[in-house]
Amino acid sequence: MESILKAAGLKKYYGSGDAQVRALDGVDLAVEKGEFAAVVGTSGSGKSTLLHMLGGLDRPTGGSVIVDGRDLSTLKDEELTIFRRRKIGFVGSIWSASSVMERYLGYQRALRTAGIVPREEWLLEDRDAGGHFLPLRLPEELPEAFLCSCDEAACNLMDTLRRAGVRVPEDVAVCGYGGFRFAARCTPVLTTYQVNVEQMASAAVSRLYRKIRREPMAPMIWTVPGRLVVRESTGPAER
Q1: Less Cβ around it within 10 Å: N or C end of the chain?
Q2: Is beta strand 3-14 parallel, antiparallel or unpaired with respect to 21-32?
Q3: CA dihedral defined by 152, 167, 112, 121, rounded to 10 degrees?
Q4: Are residues 189 and 104 located together in one domain of the fold?
Q5: Which residues pair with 192 in a beta bridge?
Q6: What is the CATH number of the domain that holds 229?
Q7: Local mean pLDDT, 10-residue blocks, the chain (239 residues)
Q8: 177 part of a folded domain
Q9: Cα–Cα distance for residue pair 167/174, rounded to 1 Å
Q10: Which CATH number do you get for residue 16?
Q11: Is the link from the previous residue into 188 a cis peptide, with omega within 30 of 0?
Q12: Rounded CA gap, 165 and 140, in Å?
């Protein structure tokens, strides 16, 4: 059978000299497609270190890890990030508002640029035609992460995942959009793309004031910058 995961001569050393710790020292393993495997051992035996190596979260001192035919040692840091999170879904009813559609198209563009084809079953509708929130229906196979059209949708998703016994971010990472009041109230605290509200309001008021004065204005698209705020819902938060 074909191995979906293979490690050969895997080593991970910490420190040097007499203080050197050999957490992994020449581990070989292979997991076939459809096979279930468990890592069992006493505390301090290197279980977490092994899983970090197999998941591409850390680089080994020696040896190799091959996942689905790809040698992780040949990947750059950015490529490893893409490799770790390639199965990404979207939460938002794309026909409910133009802003949701714009965020969905951004999600599509980002994935396709990375060579990833979004899966239709990972697009979760969260509102009805009147804009009211609907109970979320989780797919049978979950992605590794969800991008949500707003922070409230992300909080609703995390509640749904928790009731289904799915851990955030250990099983599924969640990212919102907006950075408003819902982000800090979620459990775990939500990673989100934070919009510069002051600049957005200033731009809107400026345009409205000019319209009131009947000044000529050409149609335009105004891009307001923002920033990604990393918190607990996607993993360790930035310090």
Answers
A1: C
A2: antiparallel
A3: -80
A4: yes
A5: 176, 229
A6: 3.40.50.2300
A7: 82 88 88 78 82 80 86 77 78 90 91 84 91 90 93 94 93 90 82 85 86 84 80 67
A8: yes
A9: 10
A10: 3.40.50.300
A11: yes
A12: 13
